[in-house]
């Protein structure tokens, strides 16, 4: 029967622009498929029925030969599916290519802080180029979940808290992965996740429940997914959470009525890892029942759960599903393989020659270094302590200063640590020929007993409890104090190891751990100037650090070239231009905190007791959305509007002069926000609607222009109609969401 595919490919030539040819090919193929083979296409790398999951080895290959697995990994899996299964249907190969493959770039949250869509697209393009020659043609990315809670570890994988910016970032990822021709050997299919609303998990705890109004869904969370689908993303991944109290994986309103019927999505939907099975814990049925719910909702592929392959044939016999429903899911999976040209050129994604040329090549590492520098956010710089001068005596301290793997962050493709540049090594590389660099670890990551041991038995049930020797802890601190005595400056590299962010890595306390704070305090007590370099996967609570440390540089988990890119910023080879895409709270008690909040009926007023405020801290964040300093300064003029009285569907031009008032060339992200202060539903205090990233020489002034249309005024009303209402609008332009110039217009319909 393998001859069937060869015959079909001759009779029906590949044409990526012909829906008819694809339909004809798949119709012919499916007419030859058995029920078991159709169900196999819905099965991602799992066993059959009650058999254990097989990840690699002969057991998995045997399943593939029988046509029982539709998506898997590795050359042997593909070869077995093409050459040894009855119909020769190739498996699709998916991996978590989140922020680079072998060349690991800064984490997505860091990349979003560049406010540079072209460079994000370039990162995704490089990721696709590398992954596609190493056997991979499908990536579980981009993660476009909007989140307003930095306790959630997966904020590291996303684009921040704003839906307007997040939507454009999502599209940049899709363009980078899929290119102009998904059948090309150097592109991979995107998978938009986690559909939907997963970033709003209660208490910032992974896999937790989500509950919100429909207006909040459509206004603040759903647009990022739709933007990615509109850009042509080929697949989607279901979320673990409930929506309207129905698990997303079994939610027909979400997967069919919204995604396919309203939005017109034509790709396939895969579950997240065992998400169908986990519907049992949500309390909506046994395995057979939840598998039926998932299929009827619109799920096409079961990731590892074995529910489809194990139960749907029985459900079909019992009349609980129809063969047409199975056929629909099977067709969507086969269409994805057709679009990837797997039937015509199944081995094009295994190219050893190309792999030897592109994996971790110098061009890609150079781009990783550039993006590491461009992702750094300068949070504080009193007395222009940064950039550092060359040839200083520098004490480098901290548990993250010389850590290779922790530079990579969550979901890193790099396994070999040889090419990872630590922050210590980067400083050595750039400090100058006469510089004296001394290093001391100074402290452990944490001495908290619970945090040390919460995951110790994850991989080894016999693992012994981790304990910290107080004497050794003191010796680490004493060494750091000793090397700092003769230093001109201290660089303290603190924060989170890579395992503290990402999936299943939520934290209730997002401050720097006590032992690292103790090290920092000891460094400040030396009287030497201290630069705090943060390496982490989420916004942190930094009130104490902000009060006492003169210079703070947020570098995130910056990838294989972390050290070199960060050193480029520390020594002024690159003037930092990044701006925060997530708000930094003063403490965890302010969470959730985000810039585009609604206006309460009793806004803060310190002259009156009964208004919306805290007793112990201001309402404002420590560092707001859009915030980031430079080694130069920028001065904003007044907003000039082309008209202050508008009617109907016309355009408004807004201009502002921005001047580099410092002594160094630099880049500035000029941000446009709009407020609708009186509408039929309560609106946000302001919403991002545009930005321009400009570069100015010292003393140079540039007029920055924005075109505003009625589309920028639209919102979802109580009937879920997306429209605008005439009236007063406030226009804000500035350097971040709080520091803005303001102007007002009247715009009637």
Your description of this structure?
The protein has 749 residues and is of the alpha/beta class. Among the domains are: 1-90 and 306-344, no CATH class; 372-454 and 466-590, Glycoside hydrolase family 3 C-terminal domain (Rossmann fold, 3-Layer(aba) Sandwich), CATH 3.40.50.1700; 634-748, Sandwich (Immunoglobulin-like), CATH 2.60.40.10. Helices cover 31% and strands 17% of the residues. The protein contains 23 helices and 27 strands. A six-stranded parallel beta sheet has the order 2-3-4-5-6-9. The chain has a six-stranded mixed beta sheet with strand order 11-16-15-14-12-13, with helices on both faces. Strand 14 (489-495), helix 21 (514-525) and strand 15 form a beta-alpha-beta unit. The N and C termini lie far apart (64 Å).
CATH architecture of the domain at 372-454 and 466-590: 3-Layer(aba) Sandwich
Named CATH topology of the domain at 372-454 and 466-590? Rossmann fold
- How much is the radius of gyration in Å? 27 Å
CATH evolutionary superfamily of the domain at 372-454 and 466-590: Glycoside hydrolase family 3 C-terminal domain
Low-confidence segments, given as residue ranges, are 48-52
